Amino acid sequence: MSNIEEIIANAVQNLQNIKKLEDEDLRMKALDGLREVFDVFQSMKENDKDEAKKFADILASEGIVEVFVKIHSAKTLKTTYGYFIEPFYSNITGVNALICNLTDVSVEVCKQIGKSDVYAQLVYDLHQPKFQMNTINDSYYMQSLEITLGLIMNSLRKFPENKYAFRSVGGIQAVIPLTNMNIEMFKTQAIFILAYAGDPDDTKILKSTSDNIQYIIKDILEPAAYSDIHHDIRQGWNVEEVLESVHLMAMNDENSLKMTELGILDVVLKVLDDAYSEKELYFALKLLWRLSFAEKNKKALGQSDKLLGKLEELTDQTDLSLENKNAVQGTWMELSDSFKKYLNYNATKSERAAVSDFEKKTSSAHCMISYSWANQKLALKIKEELRRRNIPVWMDVEKMEGDVLHKMADAFESSFAVIVCLSDAYKESTACRSEASYAYKCKKKLIPVMMEADFLPRGWLGILVGTSLYYNLFLEAEFIASIEKIISFISKETEIKFETANEEKSSPKPSSGVELWTKEKTNNWLKEQLNISEISQPLDRLDGKAIKKLQVLLKRHPEFTFHFIEIKLNIEDPVEFLHFIACLENL
User: Fold this and answer.
1) DSSP string covering 295-354, please?
2) DSSP string for residues in 375-401
3) Band of residue 128 on the pLDDT scale cut at 50, 70, 90
4) What are the tens digits of pLDDT across the range 282-316?
5) What Rg value do the Cα atoms of the chain yield, rounded?
6) β-pairing verdict for 415-422 and 393-394
7) 316 and 275 in contact (C-beta within 8 Å)?
8) Contact 451/478 with Cβ under 8 angstroms?
């Protein structure tokens, strides 16, 4: 048996002993054993993070979280030093320090925390009078509070779904008083925990004072960003974790405005210049994307030549990850004037070819589904049910590659309605916010559908959908009836008549032969009808099938067809435009 295997075997035996709680001496011996496990794990974490993660996952499977709950809930705990301590002091002995460090590397440990009574016990600790004071002078209490807050933050950061368990036991109310502490480290931890667990639209919870935001930018993020290793050893924070927390804080628009006013852009630009990792770059870009939602911020960001230059540079970077490229494009999209510049100049040749192919596939009008990946299963069910009723649907099922922004924008512009899938995940998604906002700017009919029970759209999403009628699709019993109502709404609002799946189709009309025209014959017809000698691009690419399709679209979706002819076929001259419409009508 190797040394590592022996350590793991001893750790597992220690865990089993504690779970039995046969007697006090055995429990104390096991706790001492866990101290040894903690020391070994720390050594692993410093030298081999992969081994440390494996070790942590094994401890999770053997019930380390259950052990924490048993020890922490004991009324008193005798240590090998010979005295008894209160429950919250037991955080300092082996188990709590070990658990806190395990959450650094193991998602499995974090998952188990959310399913157990850990949060309830930690919240009980935080309500102790000593922790609710503005200042703590006792170093033992300080260490205990630091570990408690670190454990909570790690578990929320690594497994975001834990926020619901944390909220359910009053975690938010327990942490809020800590944001007023005089000790900046605890205040910062508390603010970050609220960013992970709080509702971004509850300004009383997530809104931070200018002083707090300035402290985070100037005293935490900036020193870390300007250090050689992007880690401020003095404060103990690295750039990645600070940016991740700050970008969540920016979900609150008031925070977002304060961040820009207090100079966060300069620090983010520094990170973009020399990002230490892909994740660090990702959170810097996501923060910019979040900041760009606020109208006042758009102007400040759009006037920064350095930022626009950096975005252009990143757009041309061939080895940029897909998620980072999407974040760059999302920021472009929100900076309206720069978005047009991006679409016109920044797509590579191969991306333009991909977009051209995409436009061919989406050239006909459709109903678009905008949804969060967390709700994909139900969104797919909606798509299939609409298609079964012969309604054309566009939905990004597999994450698109290439010039995602251009493709998505084209899909929105070509749609006659957009189904917005309302859920907590949708509201908190940066990409979903960009999609819904763009659909609104394009003046598309928004059809809000409820994807989960007890969800109330607030903040930006509540403003966007307003007082529109919601269709409940999360209840199986109401699903089909809601789909029928959606179809009825689409028909009424867009004046489009859809065939039902069971409706008898009329006999096909005899073909006029137009569909068989070649490009050459089509070009000659256009020259004759429009009284011109040369056909410009992209009109010269049309054949008989395309002309026939335009004629059908003109009858069914005139507004869309007018837009398509002007923008996609580049017929801007009003007389030529009207002549072309007349040609289609008389064909």
Assistant:
1) HHHHHHHHT-HHHHHHHHHHHT-TT--HHHHHHHHHHHHHSHHHHHHHHHHS--HHHHHH
2) GHHHHHHHHHHHHHTT--EE---S---
3) confident
4) 999 999 999 999 889 988 898 888 998 898 888 88
5) 30
6) unpaired
7) no
8) no
Q: How far apart are CA 81 and CA 83, in angstroms?
A: 6
Yes or no: say if 193 and 146 are a contact pair by the CB < 8 Å rule: no
For the entire predicted model, the pTM comes to 0.70
Closest C-alpha to 555, from 364, 360, 411? 364
Rounded Cα gap, residues 37 and 268, in angstroms: 39
pLDDT digits (tens, 9 = 90+) for 220-254: 999 999 998 888 777 778 999 999 999 999 988 88
pLDDT higher than 50, residue 354: no
Is the Cβ–Cβ distance between 493 and 417 less than 8 Å?
Answer: yes
Cβ–Cβ under 8 Å, residues 42 and 48: no
Considering only CA atoms, which of 397, 338, 340 is closest in space to residue 370? Answer: 397
Handedness of CA 43, 45, 47, 52 (dihedral sign): positive
- Burial label, 484 (beta-carbon count in 10 A; 0-12, 13-18, 19+): middle
Neighbours of 531 (CB within 10 A): 8
The confidence score (pLDDT) of residue 81 equals 36
User: How does pLDDT run across 136-183, given as a tens digit for each residue?
Assistant: 666 777 778 888 899 999 999 999 999 999 999 999 999 988 888 888
Backbone phi and psi for residue 236, each to the nearest 5 degrees, phi listed first: 85, 10
Scanning 118-200, the segments in alpha helix (DSSP H) are 118-126, 139-158, 162-168, 171-175, 184-197
Q: Is the pLDDT of residue 265 over 60?
A: yes
| Crossing angle of the two packed helices 336-345 and 295-302, in degrees rounded to 10 | 50
Q: Which two tokens stand for residue 420?
A: 């917005």
How far is residue 347 from each of residues 101, 292, 580, measured CA to CA in Å? 44, 21, 30
Helical H segments across 453-556, by residue range? 459-465, 476-494, 519-530, 544-556
Give every CB contact of residue 314 below 8 A, 6+ residues apart in sequence.
272, 285, 320, 324, 325, 328
Rounded CA-CA distance 196/149 in Å is 12
Using CA atoms, how far apart are residues 52 and 109, in angstroms rounded to an integer? 13
Tell me which H or E stretch contains 24.
helix 24-47
* Token duo for residue 336: 């309206």
